[in-house]
Specification:
Blueprint (H helix, E strand, L loop, with lengths): L1 E2 L4 E2 L3 H10 L4 H10 L3 H7 L4 H10 L4 H21 L2 H9 L10 H4 L3 H15 L6
Antiparallel strand pairs: 1-2
């Protein structure tokens, strides 16, 4: 199990859960931010962490479990978009523009909650199977 966008590797789900409980390294935030081509503030808003808290976490080097889960969730959405759409550039563009399959909502912003991220992943699955155009 490898989350490419933030370079997290786990041999199984249990190991991934342990990584989340220990806290993902804060550089995972920067890796994801750079891949998405967005600002600290934009990504912090999507993963629901204040800029001040982000700065404290960076000083400590790790996120809390709940914060780690939100970073991981968005990274998984990004990785699936890359896989389905064929390139990082296409995935980044798609994630930032309104999607018909989400009722005109922007996938990146919609993925700020677990149900929203699940819906974006489901839409990507439909696109991958040719059921719904991107």
């Amino acid at each position: 199990m490898h989350v490419h966008s933030i370079d997290i590797r786990a041999s199984n789900t249990h190991q991934l859960i342990m990584l989340l409980k220990e806290g993902l390294p804060t550089d995972s935030f920067d890796k994801l931010k750079n891949r998405l081509g967005i600002s600290d503030n934009t990504l912090a808003n999507i993963i629901q962490i204040s800029k001040r808290t982000l700065n404290r976490r960076r000083a400590n080097g790790k996120f809390r479990t709940d914060e780690s889960e939100r970073v991981l969730r968005l990274a998984q959405v990004y990785d699936m978009a890359v896989e389905v759409l064929g390139s990082e550039a296409k995935a980044t563009r798609w994630l930032k523009k309104p999607a018909r399959g989400l009722g005109g909502r922007i996938p990146l912003a919609y993925a700020d909650t677990a149900p929203g991220a699940n819906e974006v992943i489901a839409l990507l699955g439909r696109i991958d199977h040719g059921i719904f155009p991107g």
